[in-house]
Amino acid sequence: MALALPDDAFAPFGPDGLSAGDTAWILTAAALVLFMTPGLAFFYGGLSRQKSVLNMMMMSFGSIGVVSVIYVLWGYSMSFSSAHTDATPGLFFDNPFSLFGVHQLLETKEVGDDTLYVLGGFGTVPAIVWVGFQLTFAVITVALISGAVAERMKFGTWLLFGGIWVTLVYFPLSHMVWGNGLLSGAENSIASWLFGYDADAEAANVPPIDFAGGTVVHINAGMAALILALLIGKRTGFGKVAYRPHNIPFVMLGAAILWFGWFGFNVGSEGAADMLAGQVWVNTTAATAAAMLAWLLVERIRDGHATSVGAASGIVAGLVAITPACGSLTPIWSLVLGAVAGVLSALAIGLKYKFGYDDSLDVVGVHLVAGLWGTIGIGFFATDTGLFTGGGIAQLVVQVVIAVVAVVFTGIMTAIIAFIVKPLGWRVSEEDEDTGIDETEHAETAYELV
Hints:
By secondary structure, this protein is mostly helical.
């Protein structure tokens, strides 16, 4: 159903306002980010035991199916519809029906010699291209959570949870941070309440920074993973059985695909092929390399060996940490941020044994911890506004506040959803878990061994 808009609502955004280069880059970036989810399937699948690798990979592919459908129907509308209409942005989410199905973004109107888009574009990129790019972020955020519940969660329940969670948690948080909501720099936001609003700049005097998803993706997924791990419970052999990765080359392949795709994730978030995009590329590489080396150093000192799984995990920790900060740091500070992330995450993965929660594939230790550090680290290292770069403490305060709000919001909402879904049954039976979730849930095995 087309929106009934007055003539002056048509954006002065004709073909001359589009950039073919920027559009081509964002389409490429969207494909790169979508490729990250199959990469995550290999990463998680390799870390799993042989009898659960297919289920682990299916949870990632299932996320692509469920979230893509929902995002086209109401996800983009809930997140960003007010950016294309005259509606006032909501504090927590936009109207899920105003751009339902996103076909409205395809409408044009001929005015003189120009073809104007009914609802404009996103910078120099058609809005429908931005829909595709943002869809891939929602997909991988849901898929990331699955690593915390490996080997014991019913596949059907996972798909249902993913659909509800992306609607009630991911879309609102993406709107709050990126859609002029509560955690943005807009007039009615926490940052503007704390440090005032600059009407000329149309932003808070000290706006929060989340360039590509430290809060929206990684803190969000990591906190949801922690809640699910606590509520669903431990695997039957947790603390007694040595859970070893069944295929370390899969882990390395997955890490490689994630690193490759992450350039779409971070660099694509600039929305243009320009100098800042180049800075983001360099910062992403620098932080990731530093985190990998730092993780290996921790392993070497602590365990006497630098492992392949450690290298792959360090890569992911560095990518997570630099994600919110990649557009705001110099390359030197990116190296520092990445190195600290590698150390923190390498140490944090042992917390599950200390506190007794079964985060199967260390989503909490990597994504929550590195995501928190990357978001808060901006307050120390951001160019001109960081505590160590001459900007005072205001940026640090804002970053801590948005991180805490994201943790609390995701934690409460995930727990509510988990209790709603609980009557349907979260876990396979103990017998099925011992047999192997691949056979019992999918009637398949990864390897036909004679």
